[in-house]
Amino acid sequence: MVKLALALTAVLAASASAFVPSTVHQLSRADVAAPSPVVLEMANGERRKKALKTLAKAASALSTVALATTAAPPAAFAAKAAAEVVETVETVDNTKKLVGLGAGAVAAGAAALKIAGIGGEAKQDFLEAEPYWDQSTVPVNVYKNKAPFTGKVVSTKRIVGPKATGETCHIVIDHEGDFPYWEGQSWGVIPPGVREKDGKPHAVRLYSIASSRYGDDMTGKTGSLCVRRATYWCPELKADDPAKKGICSNFLCDTTAGDEVMMTGPAGKVMLMPEEDPKTDYIMVATGTGIAPYRGFIRRLFTENTPAGSAYKGEAWLFLGVANSDALLYDDEWQEVKKNYPDNFRLDYALSREQTNKSGGKMYIQDKVEEYSDEIFSKLDNGAHIYFCGLKGMMPGIQDMLKGVAAEKGLDYDEWLKGLKKNKQWHVEVY
């Protein structure tokens, strides 16, 4: 019933011409905690009937469209459920059942809260450890190279603008709930075909998972990847050389709904969030697609109604380095979280082709982090955890910067870093 109610909320946008809500907003964890009253003002009967007919045809398609939209609210992903059973509501307190394909869009915003009892019931808590922060049961390498899992692509979508340096895609994969993982882990992908040089299967490529354990649809049956298409620009050809393109990244970015993906894992524990102390600060540093694990973190802490999110009282601070504004990843999601949780979420971008550092040069990720070095060192001294994810080329600049700041503070950098590692506050996953 929760899925149905959320589905109704999603479809409401399509029925705005016939059903006008007096209050409509995107559901967030704050909404779940304190839902606003909603009353729908119904249009005249003929207009309503016409809208119902249209919506009946559209409901099935809505689920596919919603899944292809990475920033869609949870309700949109549940639209699939509206195709079988529907509710039409003239006011919040006057509910009538209507059986029919897809007409469930009718009173979405109000009905969702009323029908589902969403003020406390719509929770993402069915994939939790007991207690939720206990990491003793984290799944690792459940599926291996010789016996991989076969996932099915739900959607593949380009998520960067036309002026971005390269193409980055968000890929949602259905695992039917048979491939559980935790935030911060990776999936291995085995591209189809064999290697030209020896005819053997391609090696596994690891990709950080870009969703929480509940997936973008919050059913616990999907997971997402954030993949940049790897290409090689040939100076002689003055064009991309297809013979040197990335086998796996191009395979993933070219997938369409229904395509099968051979997968291994989940892999890794180094990027897990320590959740036992809800006041822990997280400093997340990424370049490009290194943003992937942090999207899982942030959704778990702020977007979804999870035990970890409900308890969280710390500050999650995201640093992302990309070339320009068109290359920003998931910016709409970060801005929404920032608006809803200004005291618990911070966001800083390093745009190398649009910003300059204090010396007048290009603004790289280490330069942006250095601007807040005093605060970051203080946070780390007080138990914060710092994460680095992205191309391995980011780390020398980061470490040189941190070493310089440590020297200014009279600290022995090697000893300082040794202490962070000993306390498991230092998390690095680069490729």
Explain what this protein looks like in three dimensions.
By secondary structure, the protein is of the alpha/beta class. Helices cover 29% and strands 22% of the residues. The chain contains 13 helices and 17 strands. Strand 10 (233-234) and strand 11 (239-240) form a beta hairpin.
Which key features would you list for this structure?
single chain, 431 residues, disordered N terminus
Regions with pLDDT < 50 over 5+ consecutive residues?
1-121
Number of helices: 13
Termini separation: 43 Å
Percentage beta strand: 15-25%
Number of strands: 17
Rg measurement, Å: 23 Å
Oligomer, anyone?
A: single chain
Instruction: Give the strand line-up of the largest sheet.
Output: 8-7-12-5-6-9
Give the CA-based shape: globular
The major beta sheet can be summarized as: 6 strands, antiparallel
Average of pLDDT? 79
Helix-strand string? HEHEHHEEHEEEEEEEHEEHHEHEHHEHHE
Helix content: 25-40%
What is the structural class?
A: alpha/beta
